[in-house]
Design a protein that fits this description.
Strand content: 15-25%
Low-confidence stretches: none
Distance between the termini: 45 Å
Number of helices: 12
Radius of gyration: 24 Å
Order of helices and strands: EEHEEEHEHHEHEHEEEEHEEEHEHEHEHH
Number of strands: 18
Number of domains: 2
CATH class of the largest domain: Alpha Beta
Mean pLDDT: 88
Shape: globular
Length: 492
């Protein structure tokens, strides 16, 4: 009997039901997801122990669906929370426990803006067994050929042909049944990234906070831990715990964090608040590929903002080591996003993030107005994929840098900003000048040691202050309409 003709065994689930209460809708999503994953885990254990029983095992992601017959009358200042046109729109959902606050917010807006209920039921999209068992540490999915049966003959496995960014890239509008997308990511795409996040960062997705700082130097990690311990020592800070590599979580300022033998590719640390409004720091290392990888996966968590606070090469003779650079435009020569976001698409500066960063610099440096120009320049930041660009013929990259009026160069900022634009995540960049290669100040051993000691703590604190300011901003103001197209999903 071929796999296509094997009888399919599925769990019993409630029939689709309409809800006019967001919390109740998410409760049903959680129930459906729990039934499906519990069923898959139990069947998988049995198959490993006793072998297949002649059935194909399948369970489905839960789904949110809304049907509208007219355009919504909404506050024109709101860039999300409503479908673009009448019709049927739907989204498959995974891990409703992890996304509960997000789902309740988005569903509540739908209910308010359209005045019709949402329907919650099982979708027609199977849950790959790898994702179903991911939260059960007692189960390990063997590699193909390691089990006594062919895995994909019995269970659904991840299908990369349907796990893509077509929705956020504007390449998908409606399926073959005329159903439009309700959310920027499908459940399979979210599950794929949740698994990747655990692998790359060595911390579980549930620890990630809504405000993410990216850096390209380990020096910032030490300062972030020191700041976290200060906050944990202050009961009024609002921060509840600090999570380090390997999911080590401390709640007191003097708690010990064991040293790990092997660091992950992108060490990540979380200063948490009970409402998820804390700060996550990701050391992405050097290069646009790492920057894209990190943001590709963190985007599914729908953070409220991410900001790059790394080091850069200053390109102007008037700059000094330790000066700050606030990016208001980007020259993209990183190339890693060219297929997803062509370079002819402008990446605008977001006023809310720019103001927060500039005010944070003023607060920490105690400079303001014209005096602030002593330590900070605003201008174009170039991102390049060649670390040794200085060795190229100067009629090439150096001439383009001059023509673009760039004031600084790094290997990550434009990638992070461009992916923020692509994924509708508010973004910003505040860099610190660590060398000036065009003016004879190369990054050599010993030259920048004093700079690192004095500037890293201040630079990181500026990034933290900016994030804390953004945290106090209403979401409808922070999530700029600049990031939304005229044919958008209702969910952020």
């Amino acid at each position: 009997m071929t796999p296509q003709h094997i009888p399919v065994l599925t769990p019993d689930v409630p029939v689709p039901e309409s809800f006019d209460n967001a919390a109740a809708a998410v409760d049903r999503l959680t129930e459906l997801y729990g039934i499906a994953t519990t069923f898959l885990c139990a069947q998988f254990r049995d198959a490993l122990t006793n072998g297949p029983d002649g059935h194909r095992i399948r369970a489905f992601y839960p789904e949110i669906r809304i049907t509208t017959t007219s355009f919504a009358q909404i506050d024109s200042r709101l860039s999300y929370g409503h479908v673009a046109e009448p019709g049927v729109h739907a989204a498959t959902i995974t891990r409703p426990d992890l996304f509960r606050n997000y789902l309740e917010q988005q569903i509540d807006l739908l209910l308010s803006n359209h005045g019709v209920p949402v329907t919650i039921g099982a979708s027609t999209t199977p849950i790959p067994v790898h994702f179903a068992v991911a939260s059960d540490n007692s189960i390990v999915v063997p590699q193909e050929g390691a089990a006594d049966f062919t895995l994909r003959d019995i269970f659904d496995v991840p299908d990369l042909s349907t796990t893509n960014d077509d929705i956020v890239n504007g390449m998908h509008s409606h399926d073959e049944m005329g159903v439009g997308p309700l959310a920027p990511f499908t459940a399979q795409r979210v599950d794929y990234s949740l698994a990747r996040l655990s692998h790359y960062t060595a911390t579980d997705p549930e620890h990630f906070q809504n405000h993410v700082l990216f850096t390209n130097y380990q020096f910032y990690v030490t300062e972030f831990e020191a700041y976290a311990r200060e906050m944990l020592a202050d009961p009024a800070s609002g921060y509840t715990s600090f999570v380090s590599t390997g999911n080590v979580e401390i709640t007191t300022a003097d708690a010990e964090i064991p040293t790990v033998d092997k660091q992950p590719q992108m060490p990540t640390y979380h200063l948490k608040r009970a409402d998820g409004g804390g700060i996550t720091l990701v050391n992405i290392g050097v290069g646009p590929s790492n920057a894209k990888t990190a943001t590709d996966h963190i985007a599914v968590l729908r953070p409220h903002a991410w900001v790059m606070v790394g080091h850069c090469a200053g390109l102007r003779n008037s700059q000094s080591l330790g000066d700050f650079v606030l990016a208001h435009a980007y020259l993209r020569e990183d190339h890693v996003l060219d297929d997803d976001l062509p370079v002819w698409i402008p990446i605008p500066a977001l006023a809310e993030v720019q103001v927060a960063l500039e005010q944070a610099v003023a607060d920490v440096t105690e400079l303001s107005g014209y005096d602030l120009k002593r330590v900070m320049r605003t201008g174009t930041v170039a991102t390049i994929d060649n670390r040794n660009w200085e060795l190229r013929e100067h009629t090439g990259p150096v001439q383009r840098l001059s023509q673009s009026r760039s004031i600084a160069l790094d290997m990550e900022s434009a990638t992070i900003a461009a992916n923020g634009y692509r994924f509708r995540v508010p973004y910003g960049t505040l860099l610190c000048v660590s060398d000036k290669p065009l003016h004879g100040e190369l990054k050599l051993p010993g030259m920048a040691s004093d700079f690192y000691k004095t500037q890293v703590a201040r630079h990181l604190l500026i990034g933290i202050r900016a994030m804390e300011a953004l945290r106090e901003m209403p979401l409808e103001r922070l999530h700029s309409r600049k990031l939304r197209s005229f044919d958008e999903t209702a969910f952020l």
